[in-house]
Amino acid sequence: MTDAELVGQTLAGRREAYGELARRWAGRVLAVCHARVGRADAAEDLAQETLLRGYRALASLSHPERFGAWLKGIALRACLDWHKDRDRDVLPFSTLGRDYHPDDTLAAREDPGGPALDREEERRLLLRAVEELPEDCRTVVLLYYYQDVTYRELADSLGVSAATVNARLTRARALLRERLSRVER
Question: Residues 33, 138, 88, CA angle at the centre, nearest 5°?
């Protein structure tokens, strides 16, 4: 079933149809939000906000076949709103561990003579490094790995060539290797 058909069913009162649209697009919306705000926790909230805004405004969608692009536009506006919001500096309770400090880095806390980073620390370190990438690199990395799409699909989504996607991914991987190798030393 196409996005346009699901939009029509949703507008006809079948809420489950929007659930299917949300499942199809949630990963891409999350990746867009993560690329724009650079914080995984905020990106998850913004992705949910985007899907809710999309549901509420669905009747305003004049071209149901362009649902994905329309929803990404809502995600971008939600991210812009987040950037403007002065209350965004409030930290979630989950980040306030016993030894948490906002300027902490895993590199600074790591004991050079201690064991290698465990998987959870590696994941957090990688995520932090991805969040620090320049926006164009961060966007392609997050979309590519969240959605597992081809370069062509990613290029079409971003309005650039597949060669540009390749160049940005190559640059992002090089930056990540460089940043992560400094931590492992």
Answer: 40
